[in-house]
Amino acid sequence: MLSFESDYIMGAHPQLLKRLSETNMQPQPGYGNDEYCMSAAEKIRKACGLNKADIYFISGGTQTNQLVIDSMLRSYEGVLAAETGHVNGHEAGAIEYSGHKVLTLPQYEGKVRAEDVDRYINDFFSDENHSHMVFPGMVYISHPTEYGTIYSLSELEKLSHVCRKHHIPLFLDGARLGYALAAEESDLTLKDIARLCDVFYIGGTKVGALCGEALIFTQNKPENFITMIKQHGALLAKGRLLGVQFDTLFTDNLYFKISENAIEKAQKLKNIFENHGISFHIKSPTNQQFIILDNEFMKRLAEKVRFSFWEKKDEKSTVVRFATSWATTDKELQQLEAILNDMK
Amino acid sequence: MLSFESDYIMGAHPQLLKRLSETNMQPQPGYGNDEYCMSAAEKIRKACGLNKADIYFISGGTQTNQLVIDSMLRSYEGVLAAETGHVNGHEAGAIEYSGHKVLTLPQYEGKVRAEDVDRYINDFFSDENHSHMVFPGMVYISHPTEYGTIYSLSELEKLSHVCRKHHIPLFLDGARLGYALAAEESDLTLKDIARLCDVFYIGGTKVGALCGEALIFTQNKPENFITMIKQHGALLAKGRLLGVQFDTLFTDNLYFKISENAIEKAQKLKNIFENHGISFHIKSPTNQQFIILDNEFMKRLAEKVRFSFWEKKDEKSTVVRFATSWATTDKELQQLEAILNDMK
Amino acid sequence: MLSFESDYIMGAHPQLLKRLSETNMQPQPGYGNDEYCMSAAEKIRKACGLNKADIYFISGGTQTNQLVIDSMLRSYEGVLAAETGHVNGHEAGAIEYSGHKVLTLPQYEGKVRAEDVDRYINDFFSDENHSHMVFPGMVYISHPTEYGTIYSLSELEKLSHVCRKHHIPLFLDGARLGYALAAEESDLTLKDIARLCDVFYIGGTKVGALCGEALIFTQNKPENFITMIKQHGALLAKGRLLGVQFDTLFTDNLYFKISENAIEKAQKLKNIFENHGISFHIKSPTNQQFIILDNEFMKRLAEKVRFSFWEKKDEKSTVVRFATSWATTDKELQQLEAILNDMK
Amino acid sequence: MLSFESDYIMGAHPQLLKRLSETNMQPQPGYGNDEYCMSAAEKIRKACGLNKADIYFISGGTQTNQLVIDSMLRSYEGVLAAETGHVNGHEAGAIEYSGHKVLTLPQYEGKVRAEDVDRYINDFFSDENHSHMVFPGMVYISHPTEYGTIYSLSELEKLSHVCRKHHIPLFLDGARLGYALAAEESDLTLKDIARLCDVFYIGGTKVGALCGEALIFTQNKPENFITMIKQHGALLAKGRLLGVQFDTLFTDNLYFKISENAIEKAQKLKNIFENHGISFHIKSPTNQQFIILDNEFMKRLAEKVRFSFWEKKDEKSTVVRFATSWATTDKELQQLEAILNDMK
Question: What value of ipTM does the predicted structure carry?
């Protein structure tokens, strides 16, 4: 069935599978010590404008979030995040499982504001009883956010400034980073992110890979990080699976090109919805579009195309998500349009 | 360079890559709800002679060990394992990270004896102070063991009997299960294992897959196990990556056929070593061969072929491991033989 | 200096110290197996109207909260609590340290509403993605709350009803339970609480003891709870220290009598503040009184009497807490009044 | 009944109860900020010959062990301990609960040898695969050991030297430290211990206090340690309970005097056993005596005096423990002698 359910419904970009096949019978050392992990890391450092960053490839986003937070925080520190942040609501307690509290901040279309971070930390340390409370030890943001919105250069600079002022790392979850960078409204580059964040990851799973996220420590990495990956059960024996994929994604700008496809298709998708008088829950410049459907209409539509439930809007209507991706085609958009026309 | 370093130096069996390519552009739901995970699970149930077992696909062995132990034990219970068990020494504390102690038993060529399990549990509960101690809550065995040795049907029956007598689950780590089943000395079938163990896994990473282990709960699975996988950071968005691979491995007996290749090549490898007067640290019927090399000779050999350091034998000699796999060829063995001949 | 800083600034009620001295040189078994723990448990069961409840004595409140939550929840479950609940903000992450998330609910003068619990759980299970989220596994309330407010019988009945409907335990943190029961506005008895909650504790530390909380499982206790106490590092060798104190507190209604003193003195304290035109942040019927002070006045007052900072009210004023206790005397209140008169 | 069951069967030394009563109605700040904690810490620093050590009072030994190990180790580090160490076998997994593995070393009458520590660490770092293993991050010893034996000055110097060479802390569990220092064979002083260990504690629970251990960081303490105590649920509101007791124990050498009583009585106890032809399992110079009893005789004796089961010796006999303490009297020893005479 036609599906806009998520950006991970397809396999991998064919170029990645091709390279996996071509390199398949070369013996390579395990655990990320293969030549493709090395090469991919070097290409990513270059794309980020970094000379020395430590780069690791991890199989998925929740795993990466848990690892970063657990390895960079002291045991009594928590992570500041928007109440809508992925680490707060949709990771089944993976952060708490590793012993850390998620300290929530107000969200504005999914985003965190620098002034809220500053106030939280100032209030915390001016509270006489703060030694009985969880210390704020890191700021987590997602870019794009869970609502598809993006930070501007100025917003990220402010967040970075506040974090550095308070000596805590700024961590950017880039599970869909390609789509944020490709957004027309974006004035942020990968190099800006590398310069302003202390740690971030470039998402592969949702941007053309079978699995995998490239984790970049722009400043200091935690000591013995490989051991921490292993301890979390997250160290793949065949690290080449991730290395080959990221090496391909960062060859000839493939990562950026395929991200652009998702944005172009999202724009067309928005036009289709607008033309059919469907309203938006939020203005998203990236590949996730959140629309409001009448419950009756939603049920009928769900018989013909797949999409995701997001949240109840009110008694009569529901917010649902349609996602484009690197793989979305014009043909799929035409099919959706035909379905909507038929339902009029 | 010629390499017998491990059984995970190559990519995947080409048939798996082919199927990944063929199914690549089919939209599939995420998180293991795709049709390939379903189909693979059904084929595995059939191969195991089980009607109802719950089956999950996890990306790697340490992750699987941590998940099984953490989800099946109460917080104050530990897992009984051989002191040489993988969970005790080579998982960077992944079990303790999840809060559980590994309770060690003596090992006999890497194996655990039923009578030691029985004695441990009897002694534990007869100790007046046992409420101040970690309860034995599960038995972990690896098959083949870390030394390549295998349990006989009779040994596994005894272990199963003891575990059921004491109402604790028997967990078999089958990271290299194919190689154990294919061993000539083996009188154990997959159906025996499914009948005698409460939980076990069929290793993919070391037996032809890019990554992935098929985890089988033969009795009761922990409630909401998907949530526990997510909480551990171990839930792949594109579950199809594992589903397609295991569906292929369990089509036309591919898993068993490629396992046999490793055993056949290991036999030839043993012959080569014997012919060159090299002695064995242990008699292994599977794909891992542990030989004793004079340190000087070892250094020279290491310039021409890759293998793994295992442990110091004494001041002058070292135990090293040579591993064959589904991918090992006769040509590679001939190359090794030529190298050894040259070094005489 | 005169102090209303908290209800734990004094030692113990003299009767408790007397009994500790009288029983001091009797040999007693350790770890809660002494005759005083047994006797205290029996007296508490009687006071609660329970025949069979399991009762344990734990050294402090945070320890007890952590133990109850960790022992009664599955690893992927969290605890529902008011955002102002002690477990959420003032236990330095003790709940997350044991792996569990605190799932916050709106608070109404520190209290949780049954309808909010019901809605949370219904929404949770109707969310298609709930397997990726932390399951609500328990409701935590404090009585009196962190703001000194108390639940009515009707409110507690509704909470109990909702919890039982959804098959999750209701846990009442009674660190200051005596003061709630003694409040004039209270229509709840200890027997009501024992009937309506699945687990709760009767606070000793803040109600006349040197340390200790009596933890009561009214329904089923977790298996091997002693082992869990030990595992948490919370098992006192000399359990008699807690047993003797609670045995004394529950002899001749001492616990209730000394609680009444705190309430009587709190009423007088309120009158003094009212007479001096000081306004209240919240209407509290128990021993903690939250008043609003002009910052300048607050500084001057702090030179003459101790109280606790609570929170910033606005730029010019602050909420502070004055606490009475079992030990507060009329003389102390007269001193306070004199100080306030002097400052006019 | 006459009891030599343990050194925690009695309450507290009467002098401690007296001081608790005398100071009872003085208002004191909570959480260890009272004047008695301050004063006790100063007296302990002086007794230790330390100028600046950070000192904390914790309610019990397992709690202290868990806190020290968890706060000083990185998450992927474990603690080296004798296989008979308390942290390994008798703390219900408290160390693993906090995420750390106990790495066992051979024991020699309960003691660890410096050369074994050195070899373990050297072997660890020379193992090519050590990044997949738990790092040795600390050495734990108990003094006296679980078998009542003590380290000599020379042994402790060697351990300290090895630890400092490898840059890991040496942690001494002094739950019964007074009895070790008072032993006639001892050539170690408290100042030696403070000079040679990085962290250690002076046990109160088993040496005259109702509860409490004085924890001393001789070098650097972990940052925000109070928050870690709170997070572990271990911060007593009325820290004065521990402060007053330790202040009293370290006034007029009381701690040392009462420890001497235990040793003097243990010597008489040994004589009694020797005179009755009862043999010893181990030669213990401190207050715990381990004797071997014929099972039949043991049962008869248990009807008249309490002692502790230790371990099975063989089919016919059992090792049991008799403990003296600060409270043991000559009269009790005479009663024991009379019982043994009667049983001849």
Answer: 0.97
